[in-house]
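From the pipeline queue, job 12 of 40. The input is one protein chain; the requested action is below.

Action: predict structure.
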Amino acid sequence: ANGFEVHDLGSDVPLATFVDKAREVDAQIVAASALLTTTMGAQEQLVEALAEAELPGRPRVLVGGAPTSPAWAERIGATHAENAMRAVSAAEELIRV
């Protein structure tokens, strides 16, 4: 995927699974999509769970999905991408920081 190694964890995944996989692969970025407004809270919880895990290099979080916005991402401490093409450029920007 554009030079990135991607680990698709599937849908409706427990937060601990994201944290465990990020630790296992020393992830630079963790991405999550929300398809409904009712699932956006999980993105916020993901940011919090990753911060609490104190992973080395603290992975940055990239969020997207129909109900999300740049304002939402900023509010929860993440980066937003409105579509897959933008996600690639956002990920490239995140690893340069």
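Job complete. The mean pLDDT is 95.
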